[in-house]
Amino acid sequence: MQRPSSIKPAKGKLGVLLPGLGAVATTTIAGVFLARRGLAKPVGSLTQLGTIRLGRRTENRVPKIGELVPLAKLDDLEFGAWDVFPDDALLAARRARVLDDRHLDAVAGELSTVAPMRAAFYPEYVRRLDGTHVKTAPSKADMVEQIRADIRGFRAEKKVDRLVAVWCGSTETFLEKTAVHQSIASFEEGLKRNDPSISNTLLYAWACVKEGVPFANGAPNLGCDIPAVIELAKEMYVPIAGRDFKTGQTLMKTVIAPGLKARMLGLNGWYSTNILGNRDGEVLDDPGSFKTKESSKLGVLDSILEPAAHEDLYGNFFHKVRIDYYPPRGDAKEGWDNVDLFGWLGYPMQIKLNFLCRDSILAAPVLLDVALFLDLAQRSGFRGIQEWLGFYFKSPMAAEGLQVDHDLFVQLQKLKNTLRWMAGEELITHLGNEYYD
Ligand SMILES: NC(=O)c1ccc[n+]([C@@H]2O[C@H](COP(=O)([O-])OP(=O)(O)OC[C@H]3O[C@@H](n4cnc5c(N)ncnc54)[C@H](O)[C@@H]3O)[C@@H](O)[C@H]2O)c1
To answer: Cβ atoms within 10 A of the Cβ of 56, count?
Structure first.
């Protein structure tokens, strides 16, 4: 990829299209409305609060990220959505029970104007959901055309200058990549004959990229990470990213595991269990959807610890992940981790981690940042997989055959160096030696 000679300015309005107007989407939208009125702070968002060091440490140049690169302003965001239920963002947010009434009441008027478009929904991919606010179409190819018409309609009606889309829909059942996913031609053929390997998320991803709209996948199911979408995204000069927002337990795992590895401490086992009671938890109670989530969560440790290169330390650890649907907790998820590690001479030790988190409170700033950075990427002429956005995902996308970086701090360096590179600033190596000559 070429270093951009210039980045187009973030002029006019940015439309943020969200397939899935549930807990994460409504918490994000309400948060943006509150933040732009100064009623709450966008805590957790790098684009809003993060700074970036530039040049040598002696220069003391540490602007906010938004001062280094031109990001869309919160005031310029216009939200759109699709959902299988007709509830507007206010009703959906009240139902999700993430935010208090004092917050929702303060932006109730604005929230109620965000009404979802009818969803493209084939129920066989999400067995625990039974919505009626859905489109009908003779074929999946026709369904894609309907989503494309929605995108064009939104663009015209809201008079937005640019668009991005982030899948915030329910986790779909586990699907293997098949021949139909391999090329643009095979995928288009598959759309016409309603191939069962083409799920709802893939329909939205295809429609968005066809419309030149950058797309990210916040869920663990297949989305924009199939060869056909990657090829189309390159052809259309559209950035894509995914998959599965990195929030609670996996976020902690990608903080702690690199620490153990950095100190060459060994691992015998890592047992993770969660309870959560929101609709996401209900959907994940279905074994097909859980399998999708599990595969996204399990990959992290192997990639960080590299068992093949460190047989003595990580050659034989047991990794287990459980999620239990427990309605009383709603969105207030609780995760327990038991880590069996070993140190000098093989002596065993344990870490117990009990994270009482809030799923959507952790996911909302991630969704906001991904949307703003995708837009920046497009204005910078980037296309295809945006590896630098891997910071935000449990299963980050990378080019075929490339080792994926899961270590949160490696991912952060990659993201910040990409911003420096975009802006024509020197990359920072953290060598330090240059200060002692
Ligand atoms: N909250 C987190 O911390 C977190 C972290 C990582 C990933 N995720 C993923 O983000 C997604 C959203 O999470 P959530 O908590 O908001 O779930 P949610 O159940 O509250 O919302 C999902 C919404 O998607 C809708 N939907 C399902 N299929 C659709 C389709 N084909 N078209 C349009 N709408 C559709 C549902 O009706 C529902 O309103 C889930 O896949 C979840 O696994 C969440």
So the answer is: 12
What are the tokens at 16? 């943020």
Whose tokens are 């206010």? That residue is: 90
Q: Is the CB of 367 under 6 A from ligand 1?
A: no
Give the model confidence (pLDDT) of 353-378 as tens digits.
999 999 899 999 999 999 999 999 99
Does the global pTM surpass 0.85?
yes
- Tokens linked to 428: 């920072």
Question: Domain 249-356 belongs to what topology?
Answer: Dihydrodipicolinate Reductase; domain 2 (3.30.360)
Asked whether 385 lines ligand 1 (CB < 6 A), one says: no
Q: Give CA separation, 142 vs 35, 137, 191, 222, 413, in Å.
A: 39, 6, 8, 20, 42
Among the atoms of ligand 1, which is closest to the Cα of residue 25? 16
The pair phi, psi for residue 197, each rounded to 5°, is -80, 0
CA dist 184 and 286 (Å) reads 31
| Best CA proximity match to 164, nearest among 37, 360, 280, 10 | 10
Q: Per residue in 185-206, pLDDT tens?
A: 999 999 999 999 999 999 999 9
Note the helical H segments in 200-286.
200-210, 227-235, 249-262, 279-284
DSSP string computed for 360-396: HHHHHHHHHHHHHHHHHHHHTT--EE-GGGGGGBSS-
Q: Which of 269, 277, 265, 266 is nearest to 352 (CA)?
A: 269
**Nearest alpha carbon to residue 340 among 354, 310, 319:** 319
Is the beta carbon of 165 within 6 A of some atom in ligand 1? no
The Cβ of residue 311 has, within 10 Å, a number of other Cβ atoms equal to 10
Domain boundaries, the chain: 14-245+361-422, 249-356
**Mutate which of 21, 126, 136, 170 for ligand 1 pocket (most atoms within 8 A of beta carbon):** 170
Residue 255: how many CB atoms within 10 A of its CB?
A: 12
Q: Are 428 and 414 spatial neighbours (Cβ–Cβ below 8 Å)? A: no
Superfamily of domain 14-245+361-422: NAD(P)-binding Rossmann-like Domain (3.40.50.720)
Query: Residue 296 has what pLDDT?
Result: 67
Residues 6 or more apart whose CB falls under 8 angstroms from that of 220 comprise: 171, 243, 244, 292, 293, 295, 296, 297, 394, 395
Cα–Cα distance between 177 and 175 in angstroms, integer?
6
Could you give the CA distance from residue 326 to residue 285 in angstroms, rounded to a whole number?
Answer: 10
